[in-house]
Design goal:
The chain is 4% helix and 65% strand.
Length: 704
Amino acid sequence: MNIYLPLKLFLILLFFLISLAGYAQNETPKDSISNHLNEVVISQNKKTFTNTNGNIKVDVANSIYNSIPNTVDLLAKLPTVQVSSDKESISAIGRGNPLIYIDNQKVGMNDLNALAVADIKTIEIIQNPSSKYEAEGRSVILITRKFSKKDSFKTEVSEVASFKKNYNNYLGFNSSFKKNKLELKANFNYNRLNPWESHGIDYQIPAADIASKYDVIADTKRNQYIFGAGLFYKINEDDYFSFSVNSKLQSDTFPINTITDNKNKNVENNVVTFSDNDSKKNFVNSFANYQKKIKSINTQFFTALQYSNFDQALFTEINNNFNNTQFELTQIRDQKFQVNYFSGRIDMEKKFKNEMKLEVGGLYSSATSKSDVAIFYNETNQDELSNYDFKEENLSGYTQLSGKIKKVDFSIGFRVENSSVFGKFRADTLPLLDKKYTNFFPKAQFTFPIDSIKSISMNYARSISRPNYSSLSQGSTYINPYFLYSRNINLVPTIINEISGTFQYHDKSVKLSYYQTKDPVYNSFSFDDQNNLMTFKDINFDKSSGLSVDFTLPFSYKFWTMTNSLVFILEKIEDSTAQVMNPKPYSYYSSNNEFKLPKEYSLTFNFWGLTKQYTGVFETNARFIVDAAVSKTFAKKWNCTLSCNNIFKNNIETEKFTINNINSSAGYVVDNHLISISIKYFFGKMKETEFKGKTMEESSDRVK
């Protein structure tokens, strides 16, 4: 790509924003000459949404959103946030996978599943995170919990009955206790879930004269135990110590039924595959934080330690029935995966009298994983054993200077990371991976106030996106005799460069962004013609780039508040193995509406949609989802909420692409149409919040 293109786009962006500012200047009151607006609120009296330069903050504690049974489903309700159909990953429209923080501690999907919605105060979607949020990710989802200052005790009991394809039940207990300088919190949840999923893929390999199609259904019985505990001790007004632990213990049994039609030249087979699966996923995560203010130099010191463990096992027995004969045992698979993660960090923050702030810090992290696979082949009566060990160490340091020069707010910083990666099969003499590399990640943001209701912000950021540790294991899933889902131990991190600018007028904002990525990760096929086996896995593509325009348009009228998001995106994904077509613009739109009604009734009506997407390699269908909920509070201790998600049952997602001369058309049926009833009972009372946490590390979100 032409190296001058980013500079040209930057100049066009600047001209575009200045033009908007000039247009809006004509509407500015003559006496609007104060500094730029630090935060714009959307509605009056306990606003559910606020918008600052495109950063949306949601008041969960005082809205109907606190009735949603789990945190992942809550995030799916927020503007621009997309949760994958298997609920294993989260993305932001036009910005990839965001960093996720709980009380300034970076976490992952397992931590979200272990967090009770009742503990959440606010959620903020930060579009341009500064250097203190590390180098990974182009956006941040910041979750702030609520804790107490005053001596008190509070317990909440919740029950949610959810009717999807199958019945799901959520039972939760949350308690908090505060006495003098000590504060304790604990939660326990038992979820009896019955998720259902279905998908199918139709693919052709013209060079080998192969055409195949399969449809698969999985019906899962899941027991999920979630618990967490936290301790906070306030040493004095500035210093504190805290410790927290959370865990999710999950066991699944899920039969998978697959019907396959396969044509290889003149040979046609109809195969029915039945696999019986038993799985466990256990996760434990713990943090210890200590903060000390050094008053003699007016500097805040913080240090923290973290340990995480993720343990997964999957036992599978596979039977095939060819052409309506009889089921015969094909394979027995026993797969185990474990990752241990440790990190320690130090941060220092120095504030100066001239409104300047200097932040410096360092972090060391180490992750080790073991992936063991044992496969018994019934036809040959042979066993195949494979053991893979992986280790990664990261040492990083950062500095950031922020403040104000005259009326201009600025934040300039950078991060340097040195990484060491080692991977080896135990049976091999030489390692498969043995890499050491250093990366430099600068970030800069400048905000120019025009008056009290208008401002322009310019941003530049270089960031990285790393695969989680499970993706770097050797696990796989058997679909049929011709098709296998696999992970990829050879994935490398993705590097992203982005420039953007935001114009804010009152509580409305428009943002223009351009980004380039190297080694982005997407789905791919590879075909083994010797064994007639297709493998579906993630690989690193060559590159991608994109241009987006993002409008955030809130509205408020008496008892009605609305937050609208409209994003126009032009994205191009490229790889030498793929058939690359001309990309076409597509759009995302969402509207979150809340109505505060008399007698403590609350009504929400939300919808979001995506137009058809052509991104160079992939073609995906349009989608449109409508949700509604009504909530009522009784006697200040009882809350009842009736919800309906995906009212019109638009639950089909399709994807088409051609890679390695393999044509594929896939369809996924998402089980997201539901009707649920939530009942909560509160006793005791808590008021103000105090609990503090701090960023622990960079990679806990990869422990999954």
